[in-house]
Structure formats: structure tokens, C-alpha cells
Design goal:
Helix 2 packs across helix 3. Helix 3 links the parallel strand 3 and strand 4. The protein has helices at residues 41-52, 75-84, 95-104, 141-155, 172-186, 202-212, 223-226, 229-238, 248-251, 263-278, 300-306, 312-317; strands at residues 30-36, 61-67, 89-93, 110-115, 134-138, 161-167, 190-196, 216-219, 243-245, 257-261, 289-290, 294-299, 320-322. The chain has 323 residues and is of the alpha/beta class. It has a seven-stranded mixed sheet, sandwiched between helices. The protein has a six-stranded parallel sheet with strand order 2-1-3-4-5-11, sandwiched between helices.
Length: 323
């Protein structure tokens, strides 16, 4: 079961795009660069939506994929590769990818397929008027952090000590903590960060989590962590640590709870933005849209493994239950 709402548009004009002339007429062949950690279902939905809009791979569309496979330090070089080809547009997934694309070009249009938060991370200065050559979609992970704490507390009434698995190199972290800390205080919870700086440090962070054994865990919205989702979900299950995640892919590999924006919807809307830009729209005239479609997923297989009891009220609100 799913609840569907609408994406809210922010009105208003934006600054003039420097190379508006280059997109006055759709090109016979449009080359789109995709900069992301992995080829996940939301990106596949992006490609399918382009097909629905009349873009056929090999005929009038070529997609250049660049995947870091969980190594964020590769983004700058991959963004530079896309700029050098050159591509006509760049589509990004996640904060590090968006920042790398922004630093690589001030002329090629950039469409953010999804980002946790666009303003405070320095990607755009204004949602309604992003200006320059960048626009896209925000998953509102900053605002959702407090909600994830509340859901974890509802699942675990005894919850007092929460471990948070985070990527210290993701600019979203500092912004997220500004939301998480007041939310934790209001719920009477103490937070403990378990930081990684690259993919190779995840195993050690999971061992430290097991040793500290908090009452529950939040796995931060981060693509480096997401690239190791199987290992993370398996380790937390083995340590009998109930956890909540931001991306549905965790539930598919055994994660207990997921609460976050429906990223597939955002990427489909990103495809529509690509179409508008190819047909002449200026990126700066297209507001950064924020998600209002979210999904709560409960994995009953994980419930059985962990031995927790899910309140009927929580199950009743779930958009999807994995049995």
C-alpha cells in the first residue's frame, strides 16, 4: 500500500542562464551525463521516463553513466570527464555528486535527481530562484531526521541511547545534526555518532556500534553507506540492533524500518526537467522542488530476526510491509 501526494512547486523567476542559446532547439542527439554512486532503481526510472518522453537511446539520446561505487573522492574526476566529452546536461544523485558537478561547470545545465538538502549544503542559494545552471529536486532528508527518531522511539518505547552511522565527509552531516540534536533532546534521547570517512571504514564503524550497543540505530542518508547496504543491514541484524534507514534499498536487503522520500518519483520529475531544458527552458527558471511523497516501509522478516514488537499503529501507517 502506498500514499501518494503531490510535489509542491515554488514559484518565481530566476537569473538568466548564461548559455540559453545552446538549448533553443532540441538537438538531434542529446547527451546526458549521470553522476551517481550506483545504478539504483530511481536512476533506472529516470531513463524509462526519458523514453516515455520520446528520447530513444541510440537514436536521439545517449546517456553517459559515471558511478563512483561508494568512493566519493572519485566524483570530481568523473564530473570533469562528463564536462570534457561534453555532455548537454548532467544529472546527479546525492550531495557530493551535485557539488562536484557544480564545481566542474558553470555552463552545462545540471539537474539534481535527488539531494538531501540543497540550500544549506551550498548547492543553490535559493529554492525558488536557483539561478546559474543548476536546478532539481530535494528529498528533504534534513527535515526527516527528527521524524526518523520519532518512529524509532515509537517502535522502541525504552529507547534512550541512539547510535548514528554517518559519513563525516558528506556536507549533509553538519546540516542534519542541526535538526537531529534538538529532536533528540525533545524526546529525551542521547546521540552517539559512529563516523566513517570512506567506504573502507564501514566495517570498523559497525564493530564499534556492536561494542557500544545502543538501544537503536539511525543509518544516515548517504550514498557511501548505501553502497554497502547489505553489509550494514546484515551486521546490525547480527548485533540485534534495531535500525531505521532513509532509502528503500535497505529494506530490500533486510533492513528493519525505512522512512524517506520516494526517490523514484523525484528522478522521474528530473527527466521532465531534462526535457524542458533540451526544449529551451533555462535551468535558473526552474525552481528546486521539494518532495512531499514519502514512504514508510516495515520489514517483518527483520522484525522476526530482531525479536521486536511493531505497534499496530505503526504497521497501520506503513506504505509497504515486507513479509
Amino acid at each position: 500500500m502506498r500514499r501518494r501526494e503531490f510535489i509542491t512547486l515554488f514559484s518565481g523567476a530566476a537569473a538568466v542562464w548564461p548559455l540559453a542559446a545552446r538549448a533553443q532547439q532540441p538537438r538531434e542527439m542529446t547527451r546526458v551525463g549521470v553522476l551517481a554512486s550506483q545504478l539504483l532503481p530511481p536512476i533506472q526510472r529516470f531513463a524509462r521516463k526519458l523514453h516515455e518522453l520520446g528520447y530513444i537511446e541510440g537514436k536521439n539520446l545517449r546517456i553517459e553513466y559515471r558511478f563512483t561505487e561508494g568512493h566519493d573522492d572519485r566524483y570530481p574526476a568523473m564530473a570533469a570527464e562528463l564536462v570534457a566529452l561534453p555532455v548537454d546536461l548532467i544529472v546527479t544523485s546525492g550531495t557530493p555528486a551535485a557539488l562536484a558537478a557544480k564545481r566542474a561547470t558553470s555552463t552545462i545545465p545540471i539537474v539534481i535527481g535527488t539531494i538531501g538538502e540543497a540550500v544549506n549544503t551550498g548547492v543553490v542559494s535559493n529554492l525558488a530562484r536557483p539561478g546559474e545552471n543548476i536546478t532539481g529536486f530535494a528529498a528533504l532528508n534534513l527535515e526527516l531526521e527528527g521524524k526518523r527518531l520519532e518512529l524509532l522511539k515509537e517502535l522502541l518505547p525504552h529507547l534512550s541511547h541512539v547510535g548514528i552511522l554517518v559519513n563525516a565527509m558528506n556536507p549533509l552531516l553538519d546540516v542534519s545534526l542541526l535538526s537531529l540534536r534538538p529532536a533528540a533532546k525533545a524526546l529525551g534521547l542521547t546521540l552517539q555518532l559512529f563516523e566513517i570517512r570512506n567506504k573502507d571504514e564501514i566495517e570498523n564503524a559497525l564493530l564499534r556500534l556492536d561494542e557500544a550497543h545502543p538501544d537503536g540505530v539511525i543509518v544516515a542518508a548517504d550514498t557511501v553507506l548505501l553502497s554497502s547496504r547489505r553489509e550494514i543491514a546484515a551486521a546490525l541484524a547480527k548485533a540485534r540492533l534495531p535500525a531505521i534507514y532513509a532509502f528503500r534499498e535497505y529494506a530490500e536487503v533486510g533492513g528493519l524500518l525505512v522512512y524517506g522520500a520516494d526517490l523514484g518519483v523525484l528522478f522521474e520529475r528530473a527527466a521532465s526537467y531534462v526535457d524542458k531544458i533540451v526544449k529551451g527552458a533555462k535551468p535558473g527558471d526552474l525552481p528546486v522542488q521539494q518532495a512531499t511523497e514519502f514512504e514508510l516501509i516495515v520489514n517483518l522478516k527483520a522484525v522476526a530476526v530482531l525479536g521486536v514488537k511493531v505497534p499496530p499503529s505503526l504497521l497501520g501507517r506503513a506504505d509497504e510491509v515486507i513479509e
